[in-house]
UniProtKB/TrEMBL annotation:
Gene3D superfamilies: Cysteine proteinases. Keywords: Hydrolase, Protease, Thiol protease, Ubl conjugation pathway. Pfam families: UCH (PF00443), Usp38-like_N (PF21246). Coiled coil: none annotated. Its EC number is 3.4.19.12. It catalyses: Thiol-dependent hydrolysis of ester, thioester, amide, peptide and isopeptide bonds formed by the C-terminal Gly of ubiquitin (a 76-residue protein attached to proteins as an intracellular targeting signal). The gene is Usp38. Residues 445-945 form the USP domain. This is ubiquitinyl hydrolase 1. GO terms for molecular function: hydrolase activity.
Length: 1039
């Protein structure tokens, strides 16, 4: 029969005839045959299957073999024995190579035919060893897929025990060597199918023998982390990821990133190759594992690896977005890589040129899936442009492309960026090592105490949080300038962009420290603030003069000579000619003195940058002499802003200093200009140097406190400051008209309000009885809304910043006293209540000015909020000269203040305590003194609320600024980027050092925030200063 069949398949008869004869041959298998005939038929059919020249021959071989094996099973068992199978696997079949896929197909089919026979058990044992050898020879994907089919059907052939571990490892290595050189879709689909079969086999083995999983994964990592340039592991390894239980992510990543035996070069290679896996079309969870490894590396602070990998692979990941099958995973990885890469715009700028094409392409197809994808891309792009502003040429085309898609809110952008940073605690895996020392959860940066510099740190944080001022400073073009403003811009830029938890302002400290401030000793923050603003103001004026013949850049210099600047100072300046300090903090205060005898008047208009508010005297101490600390003088300014009074242009100006400030008062000006005798008059906010010969009693109409013991508010102190003062007794006023000392009434009125109102509460006074300076620890209520009464006159612009009398100066020889303007002359007043919102509070913690600690509360307030809805201005609030309506009755903002306070409780307030920055609430600000009696509000910043202040620049990039701030100059951005990279390297080195000491070192830390027994200004571990101990420790009085 075998001869007939052999002749038939090789004959030239028609195919239908051949098939009919083959059917007869198959039917003859039912008849009895001897062993020799059966063996001859098995040999023939095996040869047809393995060496058949065409599909028909191979098909005939399979049909006849299955028929004869079924009816003659013992004979087939004898034929299909261990020796025959071993020969096929080791030597092949005749001309057929042993690695041909037909060999495994034949063996697989033979096992099916004797599945129920006892002899198959021997073959299982043989195949366990032989297939391990076959896998170790790195078979090609087709052969490996056939082997996987065989082992999937006959799991008994899978090696057991330790051999199973070896088999899995060898199979992983084999997959790592897979390659597909074809680019045709048919071959690619077939290749993916083959790889899928092999990975499914591994999954089945891992499930059956869990002990094989970890060694297999170790082998995967060994393959992808190889630094051998001659070997590039196949991306087909990505097919294994979907079979790894997600529950193992935390354990595996922590073990991998903490392993000291894994070198950085190997980890970099592994991560790069895992990112390459995003190209594998059917793999699931690749993005999950890639992001987990990125987070794991960030948790152990291996930032060098993250930087290198991100810059190397970011463009490849972006290009994967074009392919639908891998798009979701690629977008997830791209988002994490960009959002976490916050120290430099370099990674984002690699992909920016390609964003427009991507958006246009997906917009054109109009598919719902494409629209949803573009919404995600738009959100990512807005976050990155928000964080890295200053590149309008790059961003404008992108903004135009995505303008039709929703833009995320600023709050959402901040939240996304804060959660994604490498140094964010939320970015670390659960239970990962120690907490990182990056920016706090607030996203704000602290200032390192350089040795009793808390007075500077608290003021700088308050100025930084003055949003409009910060934006103006950052928008200045100061390239090539080494001014103090340039250093302040540098400081503000670092506070906004650095990755550090706290920044050391050493350069700015040395440049801004007043000459009389002893280094490393406690100083008055209010005095420092005045000096700083004065320096910035004077410096800008000098730069304007120097650049009078150059294009006005940066500080907006006008073409004005020094003489012109000086001559214009007395006549007032327009908004365009004002310095930045004048525009942001400058106001004007008019002092009006009326002789109570002849009713003649004199007045003076002065510039100020802050108002110093004295406490209302109590009846018990009203008649006792009390002198304010010279360091707490008010700022009565002329064009120099920091001078305490206006002077005659022909005389030398009085420069502000602690030594002279206490002696400069309004009477000095009166004497110089009017030629009057040296009779002094003082208002409550002024200070005098304590001496036995200069005892002055302050007499003011003190508004009563409703309720007797009610806590005074800032509004009360402001009302007291503006209340009329009677100059009597030793403080009488020399009247030119009367030519003698006379009692007089002195009033002060704000005639021009500042953009930011700085209020200093005069808490430090001199006790003449005991000759010591003491601190007034009275609690003061801080209103969230403050209304500043501003009075303007129709002839206001004609008032010079000196004593103004109604005199015809052409008749200089006449008696000036006769020309004094009587108080009965009517003036046209324009009363107005200007609303302000509390922006920041500088707190002093301690019992004297020589010791203690400063820290500040602050929040972001911009000038874009309309005041119309917050603080209405009823017409009936027009103020009379006596200011009776100001001092009496309930403030019209009281109800609004209360309502707004309730809404503001939940808004973000920050507590800046040197290096530490934490979230807090307005309720904490209000209750600080009641909870900690030594901690009292000292300097307050209020922001004027107006619909348009005319100070903000247009955004060149469609509103995409970091925290709304303008773009930085390239020089500044480069410096920040360089420092951020340095910081990440420092963190990485510290993490490695900690890892080496982890076995023996123990770490304890206090959680952020304050408990009820630990005030923010304390000397404990949560304090912001330089050391522990209490105020009773002499060596630690200041920090």
């Amino acid at each position: 029969m075998d001869k007939i069949l052999e002749g038939l398949v090789s004959s030239s008869h028609p195919l239908p005839l051949k098939r009919m004869i083959v059917r007869k041959v198959v039917e003859s298998a039912e008849h009895g045959l001897d062993e020799a005939q059966c063996r001859a038929m098995f040999d023939l059919t095996t040869r047809l299957i393995l060496e058949g020249g065409d599909p028909f021959q191979r098909q005939v071989g399979h049909q006849v073999l299955e028929a004869y094996a079924r009816y003659h099973r013992p004979e087939f068992e004898s034929f299909f024995n261990k020796t025959f199978v071993l020969g096929l696997l080791q030597r092949g079949y005749r001309s057929l190579d042993r690695k041909d896929v037909a060999i495994l197909d034949y063996i697989h089919n033979g096992l099916r035919l004797i599945r129920s026979c006892p002899s198959v058990l021997d073959l299982f044992g043989l195949l366990q060893a032989e297939l391990l050898r076959v896998v170790g020879e790195r078979p090609e994907p087709p052969l490996c897929a056939r082997l996987s089919d065989l082992l999937t059907d006959f799991v008994q052939c899978v090696p057991k025990g330790k051999l199973a571990i070896t088999f899995c490892q060898q199979l992983v290595r084999t997959i790592g060597h897979f390659q597909c050189v074809s680019t045709r879709e048919k071959e690619l689909r077939e290749y993916v199918s083959q790889v899928t079969k092999v990975s499914s086999l591994l999954q089945n083995i891992w499930k059956a023998e869990p002990s094989t999983l970890l060694p297999s994964l170790q082998e995967v990592f060994a393959s992808i982390s190889s630094t051998d340039a001659s070997f590039e592991p196949s991306v087909a390894l990505a097919s294994l990821v979907q079979h790894i239980p997600l529950q193992m992510i935390t354990v595996l990543i922590r073990s991998l990133t903490a392993d000291p035996n894994v070198k950085d070069a190997s980890m970099t290679q592994a991560l790069c190759r895992m990112i390459d896996w995003l190209s594998w079309p059917l793999a699931q969870h690749v993005d999950t594992w890639v992001i987990a490894l990125l987070k794991g590396l960030a948790a152990v602070q291996k930032f060098t690896i993250l930087i290198d990998v991100t810059l190397l692979k970011i463009e490849l990941v972006f290009n994967r977005l074009w392919f639908p099958l891998v798009r979701p995973g690629a977008l997830a990885v791209l988002s994490h890589m960009l959002l976490s890469f916050q120290h430099s715009p370099e990674a984002f700028h690699v992909i920016v040129p390609h964003v427009v094409n991507l958006v246009h392409s997906f917009k054109s197809d109009g598919l719902p899936s494409s629209t949803a994808f573009l919404v995600q891309v738009t959100e990512l792009v807005h976050c990155m442009m928000y964080h890295y502003s200053g590149f309008p040429d790059l961003y404008e085309p992108v903004l135009e492309a995505v303008k039709d898609f929703p833009k995320p809110s600023e709050e959402k952008i901040k939240l996304i960026l804060n959660q994604s940073a490498w140094t964010s605690q939320s970015n670390a895996l659960a239970s990962c090592l120690s907490r990182l020392s990056g920016k706090s959860e607030t996203g704000k940066t602290g200032l390192i105490n350089l040795g009793n510099t808390c007075y500077m740190n608290s003021v700088l944080q308050a100025l930084f949080m003055a949003t409009d001022f910060r934006r103006q400073v950052l928008s200045l073009n100061l390239n090539g300038c080494n001014s103090l403003m340039k250093k302040l811009q540098h400081l503000f830029a670092f506070l906004a962009h650095t990755q550090r938890e706290a920044y050391a302002p050493r350069i700015f400290f040395e440049a801004s420290r007043p000459p009389w401030f002893t280094p490393r000793s406690q100083q008055d923050c209010s005095e420092y603030l005045r000096f700083l603003l004065d320096r910035l103001h004077e410096e800008e004026k000098i730069l304007r003069v120097q650049s009078s013949h150059e294009p006005a850049e940066g500080l907006g210099c006008a073409d004005t000579s020094l003489q012109e600047v000086t001559s214009k100072a007395a006549a007032g300046t327009s908004d365009n000619e004002k310095t930045l300090i004048e525009r942001m903090f400058g106001g004007k205060l008019r002092t009006h003195i009326c002789c109570l005898n002849c009713r003649s008047t004199s007045q003076k208009v002065e510039a100020f940058t802050d108002l110093s508010l004295a406490f209302c005297p109590t009846p018990a101490v009203e008649d006792l002499p009390s002198f304010q600390d010279p360091a707490s003088l008010p700022t009565a300014q002329d064009d120099g802003l920091m001078q305490t009074s206006a002077v005659d242009p022909e005389e030398e100006p009085v420069v502000y200093s602690p030594a002279t400030a206490a002696f400069v008062c309004d009477s000095t000006v009166n004497q110089r200009i009017l030629g009057s005798p040296p009779v002094e008059f003082h208002c409550a906010e002024n200070s005098s140097v304590p001496s036995e010969s200069a005892k002055i009693v302050i007499s003011k109409d003190v508004p009563p406190n409703p309720g007797g013991e009610a806590t005074p508010s800032v509004t009360d102190l402001l009302n007291y400051f503006l209340a009329p003062e009677i100059l009597t007794g030793d403080n009488q006023y020399y009247c030119e008209n009367c030519a003698s000392l006379q009692s007089a009434e002195k009033t002060m009125q704000v005639t021009e309000e500042p953009e930011y109102l700085i209020l200093t509460l005069l808490r430090f006074s001199y006790d003449q009885k005991y000759h010591v300076r003491r601190k007034i620890l009275d609690n003061v209520s801080l209103p969230l809304v403050l209304e500043l009464p501003v009075k303007r006159t129709a002839s206001f612009s004609s008032l010079s910043e000196s004593w103004s009398v109604d005199v015809d100066f052409t008749d200089i020889n006449e008696n000036l006293a006769k020309k004094l303007k009587p108080s009965t002359t009517e003036e046209t007043f324009c009363p107005k209540l200007v609303p302000y919102l509390l922006s920041s509070v500088v707190v002093h913690s301690g019992v004297s000015s020589e010791s203690g600690h400063y820290y500040s509360y602050a929040r972001n307030i911009t000038g874009t909020e309309s005041s119309c809805q917050v603080c209405p201005q009823p017409e009936h609030l027009a103020l009379a000269p006596s200011q009776s309506c100001l001092l009496g009755g309930e403030s019209p903002s009281a109800a609004i203040d209360q309502d707004l306070e309730n809404k503001e409780m939940s808004q973000e307030w920050f507590l800046f305590n040197d290096s530490r920055v934490t979230f807090t609430s307005f309720q904490s600000v209000q209750k600080i003194t009641s909870r900690f009696p030594k901690d009292t509000a000292y300097v307050l910043l209020y922001k004027k609320q107006s619909s348009a202040n005319g100070l903000r620049s247009d955004n060149p990039a469609g509103g995409v600024w970091v925290n709304g701030d303008p773009p930085l100059q390239k020089e500044l951005m480069d410096a920040i980027t360089k420092d951020n990279k340095l910081y990440l390297q420092e963190q990485e080195l510290n993490a490695r050092a900690r890892a080496l000491q982890a076995a023996s070192a123990s770490c304890s830390f206090r959680p952020n925030g304050f408990d009820d027994n630990d005030p923010p200004g304390s000397c404990g571990p949560t304090g912001g200063g330089g050391g522990g101990g209490g105020f009773n420790t002499v060596g630690r009085l200041v920090f």
